[in-house]
Design brief:
- The chain has 15 helices and no strands.
- The relative contact order is 0.14.
- Helix 1 runs antiparallel to helix 5 and helix 4 (75-95) packs antiparallel against helix 7 (172-191).
- The protein has 2 domains: 7-193, Up-down Bundle (Growth Hormone, Chain: A), CATH 1.20.1250.20; 213-407, Growth Hormone, Chain: A (Up-down Bundle).
- The chain has helices at residues 8-31, 33-42, 48-71, 75-95, 102-133, 145-159, 172-191, 218-246, 251-278, 280-300, 304-315, 318-332, 337-364, 369-387, 393-403.
- It is 76% helix and 0% strand.
- By secondary structure, the protein is an all-alpha fold.
Length: 407
């Protein structure tokens, strides 16, 4: 291992490897289930209720994986656990090709969520630390292109072979792409040079504590909790809300998810650029404001315009929220970046679980799914309010040093 400055080629390959890892676990392993579910129901493989249960199990597994990543945050652990979880996720996708029993599918969806949570925390955190050591931290957001591209890829992998595949065979296209990508990405990330210890503060500063929660990080955690609930409602129910708003037979209903996917493509570059231009904290405030408008759009304008605006603003902001929050967290506490990243995502995944449950309670009260979006609007206003209390990273060390306190 070496701290020698990497070449441009090494940086590009590392970014691609991380993006490929996120594509494998977060789109081919997770998001692809959403467009597959209507086909599984039509094939008689699952019922709608079973599909909802499988989605909930996957969310729960994701939270478990993030908590495990919180435990396995040291550099030597990252190099072992990350490639193993990545390849295992791809093998789980392959295993679903041969799974007809819904009980076994429950196990695989839970396991897929666990490995997804581990990789989604560890891969960006590992690359973020690597880029930070080489003074290229502003490139870290580009790793999330894997999610953006993966949403489009997964849509095509479901639609193109839909006429000649049925039942669990529909997992074949995802599995055939996921496995070689996972092997290549896992090998590249395993070879990535990592420090033997976490960064230490300059001698002029007080030695940092190991606490995750302090007056600098707590507002960031509380804001991120709102983000998890705010985005998951439209990302889960927007196609159904489109049916409620427009009625059946409208062409937009079948393409609303494509609008979301397309909106994610420029979002990574945009929020990476704005974070560098304005600072990550200011960019995050703007991100939350736009995302709030997006979730509220179908409620304020119950029309095709409102639905497209929701798809564009939510699709164009939610990955930026993750990227900016993770980078801001590391800037606040550079001595425990991977651990802070894991804790943030664990909280984010917990509030994601609350979204479908709140929607279900709203339906029990004779509401509709469109109305449940108000929960998301409220959650994002909460996130925006707490983000205003997040300190600028460069002011944190000065504040603690002047007060003689530990962060």
């Amino acid at each position: 291992m070496t701290d020698q400055a990497p070449s441009s080629r090494q940086i590009i390959i590392t970014l691609l490897a991380c993006a490929a890892a996120l594509l494998v676990v977060h789109t081919l392993g997770r998001f692809i289930f959403a467009p597959l579910l209507p086909y599984f129901i039509n094939d008689g493989m699952l019922t709608a209720q079973q599909g909802a249960q499988l989605a909930a199990l996957n969310y729960a597994g994701y939270m478990i994986g993030a908590l495990l990543a919180l435990r396995w945050h040291r550099p030597e652990q990252l190099r072992r656990v990350l490639p193993a979880a990545l390849v295992l996720n791809a093998l789980i996708t392959l295993a679903q090709v041969f799974t007809f029993d819904p009980s076994w599918l429950q196990f695989w969806r839970l396991a897929s969520g666990v490995t997804n949570g581990i990789v989604f925390v560890q891969a960006p955190a590992l690359v973020l630390e690597w880029l930070a050591r080489h003074g290229r931290i502003r490139l870290s957001g580009l790793t999330y292109f894997g999610v953006s591209v993966g949403l489009l890829v997964s849509s095509g992998l479901v639609e193109w072979p839909s006429e000649w595949l049925s039942g669990p065979e529909r997992w074949w296209p995802a599995a055939l792409i996921a496995l070689p990508l996972a092997l290549w990405s896992g090998l590249r990330l395993w070879r990535l040079d990592t420090p033997t210890s976490v960064p230490q503060p300059d001698s002029g500063h007080t030695k940092p504590s190991g606490r995750l929660f302090d007056r600098a990080s707590v507002p960031l955690f509380l804001a991120y909790a709102g983000a998890g609930l705010g985005y998951i409602l439209p990302m889960t129910f927007l196609p159904v809300v489109a049916v409620e708003v427009l009625g059946g037979g409208e062409p937009l209903i079948g393409h609303i998810w494509l609008w979301v996917a397309v909106a994610t493509l420029p979002s990574i570059w945009l929020w990476n650029y704005l974070g560098g231009l304005w600072g990550d904290r200011t960019a995050l405030l703007v991100n939350y404001a736009l995302q709030t408008v997006g979730v509220a759009s179908p409620l304020l304008w119950p029309s095709a315009f409102g639905l497209i605006l929701c798809a564009g603003l939510v699709g164009g902001t939610f990955i930026g929220t993750v990227m900016l929050t993770q980078r801001l967290g590391r800037a606040l506490h550079p001595h425990q970046g991977p651990r802070l990243s894991a804790a943030l995502i664990a909280l984010y995944s917990f509030t994601q679980l609350m979204g479908p449950w709140l929607a279900e309670q709203w339906l029990v009260l004779a509401g509709n799914l469109s109305g449940s979006f108000w929960f998301g609007v409220g959650a994002l206003i909460w996130a925006l309010a707490w983000s205003l209390r997040v300190p600028e990273p460069h002011s944190v060390s000065r504040c603690y040093s002047a007060a003689g306190q530990k962060p």
